[in-house]
TrEMBL record:
ATP binds at residues 403-405, 433-438, 522, 537, 548. This is Acetyl-coenzyme A synthetase. Its cofactor is Mg(2+). InterPro entries: Ac_CoA_lig, ACAS_N, AMP-bd_C, AMP-bd_C_sf, AMP-binding_CS, AMP-dep_synth/lig_dom, ANL_N_sf. GO terms for molecular function: acetate-CoA ligase activity; AMP binding; ATP binding; metal ion binding. The keyword Metal-binding applies.
Amino acid sequence: MSQQTPGSTAMQAPQGDAFENLSQENRRFAPSAEFAANAVVTAGEYAEADADRPAFWAKQARELLSWSKDFTQTLDWSNPPFAKWFVGGEINAAYNALDRHVEAGHGDRVAIYFEGEPGDTRTYTYAQLTEEVKKAANAFESLGVTKGDRVAVYLPMIPEAVITLLACARIGAIHSVVFGGFSAEALRSRIDDAEAKLVVTADGTYRRGKPSALKPAVDDALAHDGHTVQNVVVVKRNGQDVDWHEGRDHWWADTVGAASAEHTAVGHDAEHPLFILYTSGTTGKPKGILHTTGGYLTQGAYTHKAVFDLHPETDVYWCTADVGWITGHSYVAYAPLINGATQVMYEGTPDSPHQGRWWEIVEKYKVSILYTAPTAIRTFMKWGKEIPAKSDLSSIRVLGSVGEPINPEAWMWYREVIGGNGGRKQTPAPIVDTWWQTETGAQMIAPLPGVTATKPGSAQVPLPGIAVDVVDELGETVPNGHGGFLVIREPWPAMLRGIWGDPERFKETYWSRFESMYFAGDGAKKDEDGDIWLLGRVDDVMNISGHRLSTAEIESALVSHPAVAEAAVVGAADETTGQAVVAFVILRGDAVDTGDDIVQELRNHVSKEIGPIAKPKTILVVPELPKTRSGKIMRRLLKDVAEGREVGDATTLADNTVMAQIARSLKK
Ligand code: PRX
């Protein structure tokens, strides 16, 4: 495959040598007989879904959810790429996550075990959580929020985050969560784009034992005229002083605390918008990914049950993702509760107060299903297996991975040290590596733990009812043993319904690269068995610790600094975080290169513009940037420099001395 894809100079096909190593992987781990015998789904599910995909999803929708009005048509795909699932159906997401479990007699089952970073804990049963959500729904309505209004959510990982999301869903308001690690500026642009009426936030949270603030960012984000926000509800979490805007700001305890616990949920149309979640694309402006109700809940619930082999009466499930990302939406706020599961929610970092915190939590709550990201696993590997060995991890029976490719070494460590309780368990827990995206809404590729013989490093097979393929540049399916681009051939229930306020961008971004196929932006390979290996993004999106960031977004943050004339950003391979941000900047003629000072200042500037997660690890001041004759920056060459490789083919550069100039300046 050529390096440059026609029609897009930015898009790079996966590198050849990445394929070579993978072909050597021949370890297989079949499910134990006992696991397979008790598994909630069996191999028959694939054939059933293949025989009639819409019928399969219609069955899941009716089995897993309670509809206030049944749907009359499973899928309307008459106007692609705009899909309608479960047409005519009406459903309330919060009722499905809460009330119906209480009505079914499970009100005393624990919904959430919350563990705060300082060690405080709270437990919510399904009955209690239902009551809190009803109060929040009443409180938001009393602040003038009605169906279709947007609510921005800027909260830490505390139960109020889940309560807020479900309260919005209950009244048909559309939530737009902004990750607490994003800056005031990022929050402002998201609030403005969605024209939010209400913001729900907290005074702050705790990070590594110290209070960390959130409310000041909301105040900054609302410091300009012309915004649409009428009220701000503030959860008191860390007790720090906050500025108060009388009339606009309300303490959660006063509004939600005082509201009535009576609230009747009404059904909303299956295609009623549930939420917007902004994610990075290839341009500087994040996209508001829009999800709707019926299909999103169906696929979330089905995958959560099937991929984690969920037994809701006995399992304790813990997904470590923050509610600010899609994983925290689908697999913390929605699917586990829809499925009536008991889950753990943890506020803080893995190393607070010490590096064994997670494993103490697993032991304390007897976590049986753990879902986390490869970056965390690699960090634990670095810290050493003696740390988890201090805790009893024997309760773990399924391990999930998400967000980035998991290298076979990390996979094996996860299996043996965590899933095998440090070698004390005869049969280690199966690992399910789950590939999906903000846009897909729910898991798309993953093994089924009671069916699939798993393979270290591969996400393997599309889930039942999902049509994933790997194609070449012309959109033809590649044979086994070959790499190409990951696409989705058929609509799926949890698919994004569009980009908030920009239907053209939706078509252009995902549906124009290959005819009638969704283009995911990932490179992938099919091995000799036909199993899928994810090889990372082929566009200008980076993946830092499983967090999605765009090169263009960081470049525009850098050039907004008065000292910077031009900037180019690449994601360079990093042992722990998968990729790390490396920036090349040209300073303005009148800017003085103060060495470390300017680098530090620029790093802080990016942090202020986007958030600490986007801070470049390395900034290199260079005299020129490599560009093609049409003015496109050749990031591939910069990536070679950033990863310490010999620079590749530079013949298409407008000025072929540029790479030598860069090399000379870096030596200096
Ligand atoms: O490149 C893929 C990578 O994460 C991207 C999606 O990022 P985001 O929308 O933030 O959602 C992350 C959580 C679902 C994908 O395009 N990715 C996600 N899961 C995997 C993965 N790469 C390899 N293996 C995975 N299991």
